[in-house]
Amino acid sequence: MAKSSRSRNPEDTEENVTTPVINKKPISKGKKKQSDLFESIKKKCNLQRVLDDWIDRYTDQDPEKSVLELLTLLFDCGGAETTITFKDFKDLEIEDAATSIVEQSDSQQYPLGSKRSKLLIENFNEFWREIVEKCKKSIIFDNYLLDMVTLWLHELSFAAKRGIRHAATQAAIQITSSLISICNDLRKDLNATTRQLAGENKNSSRQKQLKDNQLQTSSRLKSMESILIVRLFTGVFSPRFKDSLPEMRALCIIPYCNWILEYPIQLLNHQNLKYIGWLLGDHSNEPRQAAISGLCILYSNENYINQLDPFTQCFKHRIVEIAFSDKTPSISVEAIRLVSIMSNLDLLDESDVQKICTLYLVDQPEISKAAGGLIFSKYLSSTQTKIDTTLTNIINSTSAATTTSNGRKKSKTTITTSDLDEQQQQQISSQIYHHRETQLNALLEFLDKTVIPEEPYYLVQSLWTTDGKSLFVDWPFWVDYLESIESKNINDKQMGMICKFLSASVRIAVNDRVKIFTPPQLHHLAQYRAEHTPTTPMTINTDGEMEVATTQLPPTASKRRGRKPAAATITQQKSKSNEHDDEGGDEETNEQADDDEKSDEINESVCREITRQFIIILPELLVLYRANTIVCQSLIEIARYFVLDCYVTLRLQSKYTALLEAISDIFTSQPKTQLIDTISVTLENLLNNGKTPSQLETASKAALHSLFTELIDTLRLTKITQQQPSQQSQESIANSQQQSSSSSQSDTNNNNDNNNNNEESQVFPVISTLYKLDSLCKQFNFADEKFASMIFKFTDGSVNGVPIQTIDDSDSIIIHSTSIYSQLLMWSLFSAIPSKFYQVDPMNVNILQMFYLLSSRTISTLKNEDITHRLRNFMFTTFIETRSLFSPVLDLTNMTVYDISLPAENLLFRTISSIFSQENEYSLTYLKVEFIKNQQISLEKKKLAEINKSKRKGGSKKPTGAGATSEEEITSHSEKETSDHETESDGGAKNQQKIKDTDLQLLNSFVPDQQFGERAVELVTSICNCIKYSFVTQSTQLFRLLLKQIALSSSKRAVDIIRDFFRKYPVQSGKFEMEIVIDLMSSFQSTCLEEVIASNPDFQHHMFSRFRSLCQWLVSDFIRHPDTIRGVIEHFLNYALKNPQAEKLEELLEILDFLGSKLSEKSSIEFIKKRVIFNEDFPHIDLINKLNNTIEFQTIQNLEPSGKTTGKKIKQQLKFASATTATKKTAPKKRRRSSKVSESEESEPDSEESDYEEDRREELQRQKNIIKDQIQRQQDEDEEIDEQKASSEDSSDFEPPIDPKKKLKTIN
């Protein structure tokens, strides 16, 4: 039988096995024949009978052949190409006999690794597990079966074929699990025998028998442990942790950790734990996740925490690092769970746990929820356990003492507090209230330490899936807590946090969730709110008379956050207008709206419960905290979800009036914009929801009328003292300032400051009132001509005829008043549109006048070159959005006969250019600042990686075998990869230091613009409307400005709008498309050469990368005409020919090389025929050659003939193919030409060609002959195939011929 005189591991020499010397023979490879065992287990079978039959063959027939059957099963499951013969198995050493299997080439396909082999995998695992269990009291101790199997598993674990390694490892896993069970049983038997032996008398027969049993059990246990440790752990599993395949490294880590806990006496040591630590630094996802999951198993058992302490001290920082910053969310989630387990055992530093808790803020839902679980475990779980215990005790005691009339106990669901007396109820409620308050204080303390303490919504969202949800939905607790708030020592900041907790809990409970870390969606004039039920909203004129308008909801209202009010039919009008613009987009819009409505359904029952709980206390709290804007905003958001029917059913109509009075008082007294917007939306939900009971309508109308009247009176009665001095006084002041001393200058400046302060104090109420009216006009229709006339007077920046000198105040007045006026125009427009026809009565002078006034004001404002960027941007976007809705009305009716002044195209284009100029300047600065931040982080990581690498030098010896890699490679591959990536574009150390100093100054001085994203979306939407409705002539400059934002803008939503627009409205003209691309690439090339970018070479390289990404998008989604790319390449090659010393020309040529790979067949041939010729001394001739080679290779690929090509077409292809050879333009070589070629060239008229051209001609002729031979060979094969097809068409074994096109590809 096969023996092993030497082993791959020195530990194997401990086995006292005498092996005869065997002369080595050449291995004879047996034919591949699947074994009976494999045929049995790969399908549904009686596995116990298969095992019994094999055991019978082993015991009654030949053990060697039976063991060979097991090995053949491994070979078949691993996909071995050949097997070994019984002679080789019997005569050769194991290492030599396994050579034919171990050295087989690798393959990804094998039976055990197939996704369809689920039954085979189950049977395979059960077979190896049960074979040890069935033999554990018999042949398992015969010193042959287990020894031979484990020795072969050790040899096969080094196979080059992954299937063999997988099969051997999977079998070893099942054998090890059974052996550990056997070792535990033997150890129990040994301990029992030892105890019995201690109680027996000396020299008795019983004592002798016990000693023999003890010796036998001890010998068997030692043998099993030796096989377990030496053969399996060291011989099979240790190489797997260093395997070259990540799935192999992760295969045995979970059972490995289970074995350590099942048999800690021998396995729980640093030698075995170190492999898990190695995989924590693996560069692949599977091993890292398996290592984290295995550690969760280890640390979940508190009995062996002390033995794990050395491992904990060594790897706890790596565990925290994985949890905090792993690139794979699932691994971070698992690591956070491990951190939670270790935190409960006090194994981690408090600072590390606190850092992991802050992950509830990340934009990954699964990571946020996992962090919420950690927060609950650390701060709330102990108190929640006390609450649950209290409630359980109540249920148990009540159910034990209370029985029904028929003698049976009440169920837990029927037990209520009525079963307890009043004293018990108060005591239990007091206990629960105390525990809830403790939980709330713990969350407040935690929030005070986080990065964004003022936004607890994210924390509530992360805790909602845990048992911490019970705190947030315990509405009676919140009511009791707020009622007793004055008796608690709580400051204003803490009160604001508590109210935000409550507001977030209400929003999530009623299913009105927001997408965390997603920028709020902007809602433009062109976006309408789609609702369900029609309604007739209230309107109020300036005389205080109530009206019921037949209009719909406003098109500019912000996204509804609250109970869905009555719907509008305005979407139907929008769909009618869109039918004239694009008919294909309606279905997508409607489907999107349906999805939004399904996802935003409000839980009505929860709203009713919240209304009943807070209906009394909410008005009192608003009056008490009316000066605290944060508290007021949070509490008013709760009122948004009130069900008004509850006021009537509970007979609390007075509380509804008190609520409206409190909200109106806060609205008129508080200037904070967020609070104003919140109140406007809440009032719209309360007053205009279509479900207001008739008993509350009077109070609703009176509250809205009173609020509107008060705001109008504030504007009317405001008087501004004019502070502007006359021109003569200004000149005298200027002259005096030049001649006066420094003290007189300071006095003058103080006087000017005082004047400005006085003006600002007078103007501020006007600005605040205009903003409040603007917010209300987005929700309600205040249809009145007098109101519109009064508002229009403010659009010139004056207050009651008095101009405002402060630029910011003047801009605010113009912006708010213009916004109100455009809202009133939209209300009037849709009020005048009948329900069936999207038309307006041409005699409606009111609408014409309002539109004319708005257009005139826009023209006069945009013509002023001195206005601020903020005002220019607002006036442009507002007018374009308003006109986008108004234009269909003008086009469909005879209103076009009226002479309405509109901004000229050149004025609009100048405005667009001016706006984009400043926006691009900010975008470049923002991109550079973000790049510098990432650069700093990369440098820090690089330094840390170098430190860790220096500490980990001197790794262990590399193991042998095709399936293994070194320990050093596994542990440091991730750090090496990161280091290589970070040093991709490093320059000299001195230059980096200079760049770093200047960039740090920019980084410290940069102030981010919080409104940039919103402004970018508005601007992009407006320009898309300009192009769509032809407000501006479609010039290349306009398209260039818009397309450039794809690479420059940091607003992802703005970029998506641009991409979707050009995907929906492609450019029709090929020539115009090519001009756009050329202009865009030239402009971006110039942008990359600007000083702000060129000052940092790394950032410049980054910008060119964005340039390449832009070109990739142009090729994939923008360019529709085949000749555009060729024209672009030719244009820039001519530019390169004329400007060989142009800066960063190599970057442009690299981009052209990419574009060359996207040329079509026809375009590539045309390019080669009209190729731009460069001299050999051109600075970037290697890049030019690379571009030509790319296009020539692309042409050859496109010229593959398909099927039966006509002779004329082949000649035509050959004619073009003569110019498709990829040759490098090096120095010409002189050589003697053949006489045949020289004779043919003598007849040509051009006899002055260079030797290089002649050599190139020869090479092209050779390529032509090759293609001719291929086509001729293909035609011959086609004729043979046709003959075979004709002769064997009637035959039953007829097979279709191979596609000749595939053959030609193979030949090429």
From TrEMBL:
Residues 580-601, 1240-1253 have a biased composition (Acidic residues). Residues 970-984, 1254-1275 have a biased composition (Basic and acidic residues). This is SCD domain-containing protein. GO terms for molecular function: chromatin binding. Residues 237-322 form the SCD domain. GO terms for biological process: sister chromatid cohesion. GO terms for cellular component: chromatin; cohesin complex; nucleus. It comes from Dictyostelium firmibasis. SUPFAM superfamilies: ARM repeat. Residues 1226-1235 have a biased composition (Basic residues). Residues 1-33, 401-420, 552-601, 725-760, 949-992, 1201-1308 are annotated as: Disordered.
